[in-house]
Write a structure and sequence with these properties.
There is one protein chain. This protein is α/β, with parallel strands linked by helices. The protein has a single domain (35-266), classed as Thiamin diphosphate (ThDP)-binding fold, Pyr/PP domains (Rossmann fold). It contains eleven helices and seven strands. The protein has helices spanning 12-15, 42-56, 90-100, 112-118, 120-128, 169-172, 178-183, 199-217, 232-235, 239-253, 263-266, and strands spanning 62-66, 81-84, 105-111, 134-139, 188-195, 222-228, 257-261. Helix 8 (199-217) links the parallel strand 5 and strand 6 (222-228). Helix 4 (112-118) crosses helix 5. The longest helix has 19 residues, at 199-217. The chain starts with 11 loop residues before the first helix and ends with a helix. The relative contact order is 0.14. The model has no long low-confidence stretch (mean pLDDT 93).
């Protein structure tokens, strides 16, 4: 007869069924809190890149190059070898690293103010040379770190600290479509645009990042994945509204899609 405080004689597997780990912290990410603004999509981008590195088993031979801008803090979060480039010069530094260490996987992590502005010349010539590097290009249509100024990718009519009345294409030009430009170059084997505004699109972005790394492993030339991200602080929106802004305002100007995919990657 069981006493009032006696536990029933249960087998351990009946009380605590065997559990299977289905998800864990990526080895390619450090265990630390983010400093990015609430709703910033850099953290999401870091996560999917880290998952790809882990799943492909290439973390130990991966080197990241991050330049000036919000992207530069990536070295605080990725658990890979990394170096910091001058503003816009990540493709040049990545070129040198890859040529010295051809057996390593080298990728740049760049924002739109960096890659499409001061770094425009660098990425174009890396593409012309067909450098076998992977470029992750985060486009949030604004200079995030330095105060929310108009970027080369800012939308027509977008209000920024340097275009308080909205970007006027007549006096300030139109947004630069870097991925479409790079796709036209023979040295580029993979050029696509994805987004992080929904779970479905995040999964597609992850798949694109994996293909971009596969492009490098196969020696097919330069691969670029442009990712539309959010900047709630400088857009003056809450995090949820910022995701809707990507879908409703940014994507019509920067359509998602595959602009160039080498035949070898389609097999």
């Amino acid at each position: 007869m069981m006493g009032e405080n006696t536990l029933p004689d249960l087998k351990i597997d009946e009380r605590l069924p065997e559990m299977t780990l289905v998800y864990g912290h990526p080895e390619s990410l450090q265990h630390r809190s983010t400093h990015y603004c609430p709703g910033c999509s850099h953290g999401t981008a870091h996560r999917v890149i880290a998952e790809v590195l882990d799943e492909m088993g290439i973390r130990e031979r991966t080197i990241m190059v991050a330049p000036v801008g919000c992207a530069v803090f990536a070295y605080e979060y990725f658990n890979v070898d990394a170096c910091v480039a001058a503003h816009g010069r990540a493709p040049a530094m990545a070129t040198g690293v890859k040529r010295v260490l051809p057996g390593h996987v080298v990728f740049t992590y760049q924002g739109d103010g960096d890659l499409a502005s001061i770094g425009g010349n660098e990425i174009i010539h890396a593409a012309v040379r067909s450098e076998p590097i992977t470029v992750i290009f985060i486009n949030n249509t604004v200079y995030g770190m330095t105060g929310g100024q108009m970027a080369p990718t800012s939308l027509p009519g977008q209000v920024t600290t340097s275009s308080p009345h909205g970007r006027n294409p007549i006096t300030q030009g139109y947004p630069i479509h870097m991925t479409e430009m790079l796709a036209m170059m023979p040295g580029v084997s993979y050029a696509v645009r994805r987004s992080l505004h929904s779970p479905a699109e995040i999964r597609k972005a992850k798949k694109a990042i994996r293909l971009a790394f596969e492009c490098q492993l196969r020696g097919l030339g330069l691969a670029v994945v442009e990712i539309l991200g959010s900047c709630p602080t400088n857009w003056r929106l809450d995090p949820v509204a910022a995701l809707a802004h990507i879908r409703d305002r940014v994507m019509p100007i920067f359509p998602l899609g595959d602009y160039k995919v080498a035949d070898e990657l389609k097999k």
